[in-house]
Amino acid sequence: MNFATKTLNECFNDLYDVVLYVFKAENNKTIIEIEYLKKSDLDITYYQQIKHNSPMFHAKISMPPNQNHSKKFDVNWQSNNFYHKLKRMFFNFQ
Q1: Are 53 and 76 within one domain?
Q2: What's the predicted TM-score (pTM) here?
Q3: Do residues 19 and 34 make contact, with C-beta atoms less than 8 angstroms apart?
Q4: What is the DSSP annotation of the chain?
Q5: Which residues on adjacent β-strands are paired with residue 38?
Q6: Is the CB of residue 23 less than 8 Å from the CB of residue 33?
């Protein structure tokens, strides 16, 4: 985490977009994928328009199909394919 924080801090003024994906979560740790796009990597014409803008930050979590948005869910649902297929089949029978 220190490396990621240091890297993002060093290029903060050049950041255009930062996206965080929860890759996997356990009781004592969470693995987050960080993707970022620098302003300097964009087309020069567009860069001139956005060079003074603050970076955009997004956090994305995939929700399972048929998920009630007001209830908790397993963030690892994509990793636990068999369990969630079984759960979906049960949901469809109700």
Answers
A1: no
A2: 0.65
A3: yes
A4: -HHHHHHHHHTGGGEEEEEEEEEEE-SS-EEEEEEEEEGGGS-HHHHHHHTTSPPEEEEE-PPPTT--TTS---TTTTT-HHHHHHHHHHHHH-
A5: 15
A6: yes
Single-letter code of the amino acid located at 88: R
Question: At which residue do the structure tokens 């620098």 appear?
Answer: 38
Q: Check whether residue 77 and residue 31 sit in a common domain.
A: no
- Does 51 share its domain with 85? no
Which structural domain, as residue segments, surrounds residue 9? 1-61
Count structural domains, the chain.
2
Could you report the per-residue pLDDT of 65-80, keeping only the tens digit for each? 777 777 777 777 666 6
Q: pLDDT, tens digit, for every residue of 53-67?
A: 999 999 887 777 777
The mean pLDDT of 6-10, rounded to a whole number, is: 91
